[in-house]
């Protein structure tokens, strides 16, 4: 028996919680993410006996989630869309129908969500006259664990998968509705399939294994980052805004490197292409940089700038 150098996506995983029912795991995972973030946020406030009314703290999370969704949706449709559909009709950005069919809100950008969430937090804290930096530090310490479940929702949906790979971690995702397939007539497709012992004799269009980058992100940008923030980084907190700065730096760093495994966004390819020529589907060079990496690098730089600004301000008080 030949050894298969890939994993098939588990057949028992279905997008719907109950087959035929409209409730999907994707939405449920985001509700779980919100619940965990809220629980850990309130736990810190209670532990530190922080002087804030419970309803003010609860509303803070609520309005940030609204800002996050708005920012994520607008950023995704205006930056990542390549057909100008929403640029030409921006009033349809929050309209869940397209061509007469219900499509929901497909396309949410995390980096846009960060901008939207920060904007909402600044406005809310200004209105309620509470400390933006105090609450941001609490939130950023809690947020990564919730993010873990958001990426698990992406995995269950079979979306945001990675580049093709011949590593034993490669996974063949369902062709419906997401996974891109390749023509068997291309020599490189046949060579790649032979390398991993994938039988393509009966196929004209070939579905190749990919990095399960959603799981990489769930671990590094979620679970591992939360562990680092919760148990290590906060022990070194010495000024307001420290945790916010470190979150931007660390998340941006993890996301930057995970992007090397993730499938580049359709049509955007590599805005910075300094390495050998390649398609979008297989890793070739560290010098080919995606849009997500540019945005992640911007997060790192922003975090570093804020770190020194917040530290400087703390010493002036």
Describe it:
The chain is 54% helix and 5% strand. The chain is mainly α. A hairpin with a 2-residue loop joins strand 2 and strand 3 (101-102). Helix 8 (242-258) runs antiparallel to helix 9. The protein is globular. It starts with 6 loop residues before the first strand and ends with a helix.
Please write out the topology.
Layout: E1 7-8, H1 25-48, H2 54-80, H3 85-88, E2 97-98, E3 101-102, H4 110-128, H5 132-157, E4 171-172, E5 182-183, H6 187-195, E6 205-206, H7 213-232, H8 242-258, E7 272-273, E8 288-289, H9 291-316
Parallel strand pairs: 1-4
Antiparallel strand pairs: 2-3, 5-6, 7-8
Helix pairs in contact: 1-5, 2-4, 5-7, 5-8, 7-8, 8-9
> pLDDT below 50 for ≥5 consecutive residues: which ranges?
none
Rg estimate, integer Å: 21 Å
Number of domains: 1
Shape field = globular
Q: How far is the first residue's CA from the last residue's CA? A: 71 Å
Would you report the number of β strands?
A: 8
The number of helical runs is 9
Mean pLDDT: 88
Order of helices and strands: EHHHEEHHEEHEHHEEH
- What structural category do the secondary elements indicate? mainly alpha
Proportion of beta-strand residues? 5-15%
Précis, in short:
This protein is mainly α and 317 residues long. 54% of the residues lie in helices and 5% in strands. A hairpin with a 2-residue loop joins strand 2 and strand 3.
Sum up the structure in keywords.
317 residues, mainly alpha, two-stranded parallel ribbon, two-stranded antiparallel sheet, 8 strands
């Amino acid at each position: 028996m030949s050894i298969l150098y890939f994993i098939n996506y588990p057949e028992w995983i279905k997008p719907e919680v109950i087959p035929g029912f409209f409730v999907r795991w994707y939405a449920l995972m985001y509700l779980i993410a919100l619940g965990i973030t809220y629980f850990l946020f309130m736990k810190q406030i209670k532990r530190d006996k922080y002087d804030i009314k419970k309803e003010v703290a609860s509303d803070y999370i609520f309005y940030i989630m609204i800002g996050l969704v708005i920012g994520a949706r607008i950023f995704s449709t205006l930056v990542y869309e390549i057909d100008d559909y929403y640029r030409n009709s921006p009033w349809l950005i929050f309209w869940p129908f397209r061509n007469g069919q219900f499509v929901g809100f497909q396309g949410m950008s995390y980096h846009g969500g960060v901008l939207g969430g920060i904007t909402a937090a600044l406005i809310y804290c200004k209105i309620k006259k509470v400390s933006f930096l105090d609450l941001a530090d609490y939130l950023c310490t809690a947020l990564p664990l919730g993010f873990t479940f958001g990426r698990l929702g992406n995995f269950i949906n079979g979306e945001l998968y990675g580049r093709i790979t011949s590593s034993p971690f490669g996974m063949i995702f369902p062709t419906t509705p997401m996974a891109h397939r390749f023509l068997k007539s291309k020599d490189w497709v046949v060579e790649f399939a032979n390398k991993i012992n994938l039988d393509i004799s009966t196929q004209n269009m070939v579905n190749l294994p990919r990095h399960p980058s959603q799981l990489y992100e769930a671990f590094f940008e979620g679970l591992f980052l939360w562990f680092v923030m919760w148990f290590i980084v906060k022990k070194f907190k010495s000024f307001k805004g420290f945790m916010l700065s470190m979150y931007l730096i660390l998340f941006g760093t993890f996301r930057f490197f995970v992007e090397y495994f993730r499938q580049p966004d359709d049509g955007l390819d590599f805005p910075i292409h300094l390495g050998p020529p390649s398609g979008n589907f297989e890793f070739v060079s560290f010098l080919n940089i995606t849009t997500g990496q540019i945005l992640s690098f911007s997060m790192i730089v922003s975090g570093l700038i804020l770190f020194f600004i917040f530290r400087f301000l703390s010493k002036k008080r």
